[in-house]
Amino acid sequence: MIICILAGGPLELVPDLHPYKDRPDVIWAGVDRGVYSLIRIGIQPNEAFGDFDSVTSEELNFLQEQLGHLHIYPSQKDQTDLEIALEWAMSKKPEKIILFGATGGRADHYLANIQLLAQPGLINQPQSHIYIEDTTNILFLKTPGTYGVKKLQNKKYISFIPITPEIKGITLRGFKYPLENRNISMGSTLCISNELLYEDGTFSFEEGILLVVRSSD
């Protein structure tokens, strides 16, 4: 099972969602204005979350008519709407969660959405893989281990960014710029804009949390 979540980020940064539209293994959820956007592009969300402060009263009435039930939360709360939706998604124990509409727009939301993936309750559940996707990037986090990566047709570059103070023992094999058992600190740009030399490569590290970014030109 795959859960796809559309948040309220700029629609021009949201990739084409229709490849997921009719897949029987996909469950859709919308977050705040993302609910309205899903319906407008012809995707009926299974669940809808938010305080809905980014839609007009007319649009909210439209959503209630279309869906019948919305998970409406107060605007003053200790979690973002996306965090609430992500916790719901994790409770379903899917194989994969893909977040769309989570980049661009307000920088605070963009950065918070990346850090959201590093919460212990999320990153320590290896049965689910969580990705943030937009028109240019695929972002995901990894904890220590060894991982295989494959070339992607439209994602030439791959970057490894520390989001903990230090990454220990990072090794990159099959890359244009290989590394062997290096330590890199938060703020380092050593592992930005690498490329796979072959169809497959591997990366590994011993300590820390890495943000992996697959990007197009």
From TrEMBL:
The keyword ATP-binding applies. Residues 145-211 form the Thiamin pyrophosphokinase thiamin-binding domain. Transmembrane segments: none annotated. The keyword Kinase applies. CDD domains: TPK (cd07995). Keywords: ATP-binding, Kinase, Nucleotide-binding, Transferase. GO terms for molecular function: thiamine diphosphokinase activity. SUPFAM superfamilies: Thiamin pyrophosphokinase, catalytic domain, Thiamin pyrophosphokinase, substrate-binding domain. Its EC number is 2.7.6.2. Pfam families: TPK_B1_binding, TPK_catalytic. This is Thiamine diphosphokinase. It comes from Peribacillus deserti.
